[in-house]
Amino acid sequence: MDMSFALWGEIELDDDPSSISRMLTYLYTNNYEDAPGIEEKEPDSMVDLGEASIHFATSISDNNPREPDYILGVDDDPREPDYDDPPLDSAARLKIAQTVTGRALRDHALVYAVAEKYDIPALKDLAGKKFKLRSRDVWPIAGLQNVVRLVYQKTPDHDRALRTVIAELCAQHLPELISTDKFRSSVLKFSSFGLDMLQACVAEHEADKQDLWERRRR
């Protein structure tokens, strides 16, 4: 039996620290931060719970993989803007929105996975709703291929909530995405993602046919 908690008042976790922080915030407030900004800092590695505390494992190893601090964009790595610079133009603002949306989708996917692991259905449902809403914010989304990777690595095949959202989103923009190497590699790596996208394309095609048929009847 591991007596470390009894002796030191600490629980060591190997989960993403930001996701655990959001989980704890939810347990106290029934919500968690929805839209982390680009300038957001990683939470402290120790969360104070009075006499007890939770210590996050931060070493990088095969048994304890850490998510990157930022998601690489489809084409490059969008860095944090210098807020002392002159006001940003519309293109720069779009770039920031794309990056923030990509990071938010990543964060919601990680919270969803943590909620599944620790059996918190209400948090899982909330993270799924936030993920779906965020997916509609802006296009293209920076680091979309990494969001696909997270969703298909951290959710089981029978869990459709996030998978349906990301597959339908990609199906809508398939002509644009299919020409990128990173996207094609995601399809090849996760066959279930390709199948989900195909089903979304078929459903969209059938809906278009039904809409056309109904318009002709009028």
Explain what this protein looks like in three dimensions.
This protein is mainly alpha-helical. The chain is built from nine helices and three strands. Strands 1-3-2 form a three-stranded mixed β-sheet. It starts with a helix and ends with a helix. Mean pLDDT is 78; it is low at 37-79.
Shape: globular
Q: Which structural class do you get from the secondary structure elements?
A: mainly alpha
- Mean of residue pLDDT values: 78
Report the β-strand fraction as a percent range. Answer: 5-15%
Oligomer: single chain
Query: Percent range for helical residues?
Result: 55-70%
Order of SSEs, N→C?
HEHEEHHHHHHH
Count the E strands: 3
**What is the number of helical segments per DSSP (H or I, 4+ residues)?**
9
Which parts are unreliable, with pLDDT below 50 for 5 consecutive residues or more?
37-79
How do the strands of the widest beta sheet line up side by side?
Answer: 1-3-2
Radius of gyration: 20 Å
Largest beta-sheet characterization: 3 strands, mixed
Distance N terminus to C terminus?
Answer: 72 Å
List the helices and strands and how they pair.
Layout: H1 4-8, E1 10-13, H2 17-29, E2 46-49, E3 52-56, H3 90-117, H4 121-134, H5 144-154, H6 161-172, H7 174-177, H8 181-189, H9 191-217
Parallel strand pairs: 1-3
Antiparallel strand pairs: 2-3
Key phrases:
single chain, 218 residues, mainly alpha
Short description:
This protein has helices spanning 4-8, 17-29, 90-117, 121-134, 144-154, 161-172, 174-177, 181-189, 191-217, and strands at 10-13, 46-49, 52-56. With 218 residues, the protein is mainly alpha-helical. Strands 1-3-2 form a three-stranded mixed beta sheet.
